[in-house]
Amino acid sequence: MLEFIVVGGGIAGLATAYSLQQAGHQVTVFERSVGHSKSRGVVRSPPNMTCILDYWDMGEPLAKRSVRISGSTLIAGATGERLGVFIIPDKLMKTLPGNFYYIRHTDLHAMLYDFAKRAGVKILHGMEVVSVDPWSGTVTTAKGTKMSADVIIGADGYRSVVRPVVVGPQAFEGVRDKYLSVNLIIPADKMRQHEDLAPFVENSDHRIWLADECYVSGMRTGPDQDYVLAVVVPMKEEPGEEVWVENGPISSELLRLHLFEPRVQKLVNLAENMTKVKFIHHDPFDDWVHESGKVVIVGEAAHPIVPNGTHNIAMGIEDAMTLSMLFSLPATRSQTSMLLTVYEEIRQPRCAAVQSTERQRRDQLCLPNGTQQRRRDERLGGSRDVIIDWDNANEEALRTTFADQIQHFDFDAGQGVQEWWRTWGRATCTPGGELNRDCDTPSRATRLTLTWCEKCRPESR
Predict the structure, then answer these.
(1) 205: CB partners within 8 A, 6+ apart
(2) Cα-based angle 54, 55, 56 (whole degrees, multiple of 5)
(3) Short-list 221, 216, 233, 215, CA closest to 188
(4) What is the pLDDT of residues 280-334, one digit of tens each?
(5) Largest separation between any pair of C-alpha atoms in the chain
(6) Which of 84, 166, 232, 249 is most buried when burial is the number of CB atoms within 10 A of its CB?
(7) DSSP secondary structure letter of residue 446
(8) Residue 252 phi, psi (nearest 5)
(9) Cβ(102)–Cβ(45) below 8 Å
């Protein structure tokens, strides 16, 4: 059994802590806040993330607190005219590893918190980590408390304290995003008082209004809960640090409301809460593991993604799953550094691809008025009235049509571990590091699961 310290008690931190605790280790979480998350924002759980939560026996509570999404409606911002509808057919969804949900951030956080506590994770609140000694594996808090562990995991997000320790000078290099993301919360009961807004909270449709170099997306956060608007507009403010600002002033000029139809303007006026984020683009970090082999980063600390993407949270969940599978292997304590390096090698290509895809998607939604924008809208408009018989389409045709989405939605977070184990990992099965040639694990490995022959079984080590 190893001892882990997780710096950061957000979703990525709790997921990592829970999964490693379930793998048989002792995990302590250092969280600087003094209570539970109160964020009313929305979190996306795409199929690749949902299947992991299902594996962790969180599928039922997730479904109860979420809104299931099967597609998006794209709308001309100024007129409210429907441009097109992107729908993932039920026939195709059934071939994916899980459903696509939207859930309130606070609900998902509470769910992970409860599971982690029940699993035995120690969660220490009011403990802000201010420094990390990677060679001794020690963290120091603002209160002067020191604690050491076999591995320190930085899950402390965009403004990570752990990231510079691992990444070095590259942690401070980046380019200011030219867009500002603003999230607004509108109470559902207020919307029901307006005839033109009530339908938005009576169904689970995801709507995206497109305008000149900006867009607005709207969705419910859960059954009978708030409605969330995500507004993405060109950056007009002076550059500064990456920062989240709660309850900041809502400026119509800042939000470019004159470009949007009356329903959007009314929604903004009904908003009770605003969060805005200025984002820094980083090239994919070369290192996620410190050379000491005792410090590693996960989630947004390792691979920040443009705000309001589909996979922001999912990547942290996949990180957690990969780490827990690796640390379920029958390796020795001296091989800890090796397993962390394998985690880095497995996760870096996947996360870099998702970072790029999410940015491209955002930029397509924010095209300035012009030739490219007209071509985009024409493509959407040309297909909006086409009726396709999805029920009778074959799976190959469906997968070809939705190839880009399927590539990410159908990702198996355990596959990289299985392939590494099949090729190299069995050399760790015996105390001498020799290959156990009788191990039949590769033929019996299944999605998100590794099984063992009797000689390799972890409890026998």
Answers:
(1) 72, 73, 219
(2) 90
(3) 221
(4) 899 999 999 999 999 999 999 999 999 999 999 999 999 999 999 999 988 788 9
(5) 72
(6) 166
(7) B
(8) -60, -35
(9) yes
The sheet carrying 42-45 orders its strands as 42-45, 101-104, 66-68
User: Between 312-326 and 11-22, two packed helices, what is the crossing angle to 10 degrees?
Assistant: 20
Q: Which residues contact 376 (CB under 8 A, 6 or more apart)?
A: 364, 367
- CA-based R_g, the chain, Å: 23
Q: Cβ(326)–Cβ(296) under 8 Å? A: no
Q: What tokens does 189 get?
A: 């009961």
Question: Cα separation of 279 and 195, whole Å?
Answer: 36
**What is the pLDDT, as a whole number, of residue 389?**
47
Nearest to 52 by CA among 412, 308, 353, 418: 412
Contact 42, 219 (CB under 8 A): yes
- SS3 of residue 125 by DSSP: strand
Rounded CA separation 200/42 (Å): 15
> Which residues, other chains included, contact 51 with Cβ-Cβ below 8 Å and sequence gap of 6+?
97, 98, 447, 448
Tens digit of pLDDT for each residue in 393-439?
555 654 555 566 678 888 888 888 988 888 876 665 444 444 444 44
CA–CA gap between residue 381 and residue 385 (Å, rounded): 8
What is the predicted pLDDT for the residue at 458? 46
Amino acid at 27: V
H or E element: which one contains 49?
A: helix 47-55
Beta carbons within 8 Å of 169's beta carbon, 6+ residues apart: none
Q: Is the dihedral of CA 113, 115, 117, 122 positive or negative?
A: negative
- Identify the H or E element spanning 175: strand 175-186
Cβ atoms 130, 142 nearer than 8 A = yes
Is-contact 351 315, C-beta < 8 A? Answer: yes
Residue type, 204: S
CA distance 157 to 220: 25
Which run of H or E residues covers position 10? none
Q: State how far the Cα of 426 lies from the Cα of 444, in Å rounded to an integer.
A: 14
